[in-house]
Every structure is written in C-alpha cells, then in structure tokens.
Amino acid sequence: MTYHPKSEFLRVIIERGFLADCTDLQELDEKLANGMVTAYIGYDATAASLHVGHLLNIMLLRWFQKTGHKPITLMGGGTTKVGDPSFRSDERPLLGPDQIASNIAGMESVFSQFLSYGSGENAAMMLNNAEWLDGLNYLDFLRDIGRHFSVNRMLSFESVKSRLDREQSLSFLEFNYMILQAYDFLELNRRYGCLLQMGGSDQWGNIVNGTDLTRRVLDHEIYGLTTPLLTTSDGRKMGKSQGGAIWLRSEMLSPYEFWQFWRNTTDADVGRFLKLYTELPVEECDRLGALEGSQINEGKIILANEVTALLHGREAAEAAEATAREVFEKGGQGDDLPRLELSAEDIGDGISLAQLVVRAGLAKSGKDGKRLIVDGGVKVNDTACADPGQVFGAQDLAQPVKLSAGKKRHALVVAI
C-alpha cells in the first residue's frame, strides 16, 4: 500500500526519492503535520570539508527547513575523537583537538550555503556534541547510560556484524561509538526538544539505539528516518571520481570542477539526481530525465547549473558553463579551468609532461600519467602529445598551457 502523508515535508521527500526507512512513519507524519518539529543530522569532523556524499542529507535538511521545521547540524567534536566504525574495514585515524576544530570550521562554511542560521522560529542551529561528551564522568556514564545497552543486540547490527564476519578487528573504542551517538539523541531531546534524527541508511542501527535509549531514560517518543545509500547506475558509490573526493569547498575543489562532475552524470541518473539535488519541480525533473540521445545533455547542463548555483552561487554556475562551452565547443582555454601555478623552483631545469599531468591532478601517479600519454589520452593546447618525457621549461610555461586528459578533464599550467 502506498502511504499518502499529511505533512508537506514527508510528501516532498517521498516524491523526490529521499526516504529509505522510518521508525514510525504515520506517527512522525502526525507530529510534522501538527506543528514545527526539530530534527538533526550528525557530522563527524574527519576532513576539512564535506563532500558530495554528504549532499543528499544536506538537501534533506534544506527541505526540512523549507517546509517549516527546525534543523540542527550536529558537529561531532566529541565523537570524532572515537571514530564511527559503520561499514568500515579498518579503524579511522584519531585526530587531535586542533585538527578537529579546524575541520569543523571548514564544514560550517558549507552548511551556511544551504541552511538559514539567522533568527526566526525555525532558524537552523549549529551544535557540537563536545558540549556534553567532553565532560562525561566515565563511571556515571556506564551506570546511567551503559546499562541500557545489550551487547548481544549491538553485535547483531549489520555495521558491526559485517566487520566481525570478515574477521577484521573492531576496537572497544569504536564499539563505544554507537553508545555515544545514541546519547547525542538523548541530550538533544532533553536540551532542545529534538524529536527526529535523520541520516544515511548505514546509520539505522545507531539511530534506533538513540530512540530506544531516550524512551528508556526520559520516557519520550522520538523518531528516526534514513535516506538510501546512493550508487550511480553503473554501481559506483556516489561522489567518488577518478580524481578523488568531490569536495564542497571551493578552496579544495574549484566550482568549475564541481560543475563538471555533475555535467558528466550518466544518462540513466539524470532524472533521479535532479529530484534529489535540485529544487526543480518533480515534473520537470522527470521530463529532463526522459530525454534521449544528445538531448539528455540539456538535462545534464541544467543539473550541473542548479547544483552548482546552490553551493557556489548562480554566478559561479554560469561562469562554469561558459568555460565548458569555450573549452568543448570552441576549443578555447577557458579562464575558469583548474589552474596549476609552478614556481621557478618547481620547474628547475625543466619538468616532464608526465609530471605535469600528475601535478595538475589529471593522473594519480607518474605510472598512470605515462600510460595515459602513451595511449594518446593527453593533449597539450588541444594537440595530441604521446611523449611522456617531453620537457617544459619556464619559458614554455610563461603563458598558460592547457592540458587535457580525454575529452572532459582539463587544467591550465603556468609559471609564476
């Protein structure tokens, strides 16, 4: 039976494909239909930026606020010190407090592009779980919180079970993570009246732990909702590319490269991604996704423009599209292309084409770069070049040199 929600939020996210599971869909729907609800998603500070893999749930928070509710972005200043073991084959490297604080600052700048943190009844809140985790007394925590957790049940969660089934080590430190995440939900409910935790479907076990703990300790009814773990139509994990993570900060990935990532979407994913990552009407997303042949490129350009405009602004999206047209249609250089600036010291007596390709991020290693060049996959200023040992001196790079790997990846190299 198809569920027809009363609340605008659930109606939007079901129609657009955001919903995987919910602890009690009908009861949550009643709460959402009858007034403002507060919900949170947690983000551990493991890197200096969020990446495309986080974007689905950032859009979920955006829709939550747009439909009249109050979102909380919970920064894991405390839990990052432990590390989430969910579906990982090894332990996360432990970070120091200065690195965690620096990472949180970088992540906050991304959220402010999608959510409104100003004043107002449903203004978003930015919180840090170090606020309540850092001061915990271990013995009190074991007695008051730890006693509510069954180890048998924790071992049954898929994220833990899959690690143990592969006979990979799971440290006691990591095993504690799910207790801390459950405690976050309890504290957010106690302090801020938060009724809902949302996250990717890999967080289901952790979310259910939080709803159970809050019910046991405070006798409050709270809810959990998850989004599907996205893969592209060809089976790759969403957000992974040849060049590494698709970061959401312009300092780590230029708006042009971000735009190009979406422009390169597989035909079969266009309609689905338009619904999830843009605010275009669903009918328009379906229309664009159904285009065939070369016409589907219209949908890809609109997808790239809309997602880039949300993150970097409309002007950056238009500049990226203009650069792409200049590079691909007219064979120009494109001022907005990723730029590698080399000092006299970098260049020395000369730098080989293979080295340039690696330094520009068009190949992962010298070996990959050489293979790419020998196979005819590299052009210099739009002219094929098959010699990985070709040397470029400071004079050759006095004017920007355009490097191309295949048809879609480009960079400018210039001496400074």
Report what the structure shows.
- The protein contains 19 helices and 15 strands.
- Helix 10 (177-192) packs across helix 11, helix 12 packs antiparallel against helix 15 (296-312) and helix 13 (270-277) runs antiparallel to helix 14 (282-289).
- The protein has 3 domains: 8-227, HUPs (Rossmann fold); 254-329, Tyrosyl-Transfer RNA Synthetase (Orthogonal Bundle); 339-415, RNA-binding S4 domain (Structural Genomics Hypothetical 15.5 Kd Protein In mrcA-pckA Intergenic Region, Chain A), CATH 3.10.290.10.
- The chain is 45% helix and 14% strand.
- Helix 3 (52-66) links the parallel strand 2 (38-43) and strand 3.
- A 6-stranded mixed beta sheet has the order 1-6-5-2-3-4, sandwiched between helices.
- It is α/β, with parallel strands linked by helices.
- The mean pLDDT is 86.
Short overview:
By secondary structure, the protein is of the alpha/beta class.
- Write down the Rg: 24 Å
Number of strands: 15
Structure classification: alpha/beta
User: How many distinct domains?
Assistant: 3
Largest beta-sheet details: 6 strands, mixed
Tell the overall outline: globular
| Count of helical stretches | 19
- Widest sheet, order of strands: 1-6-5-2-3-4
Q: For this structure, what is the CATH homologous superfamily of the largest domain?
A: HUPs
> pLDDT under 50 segments (min length 5)?
none
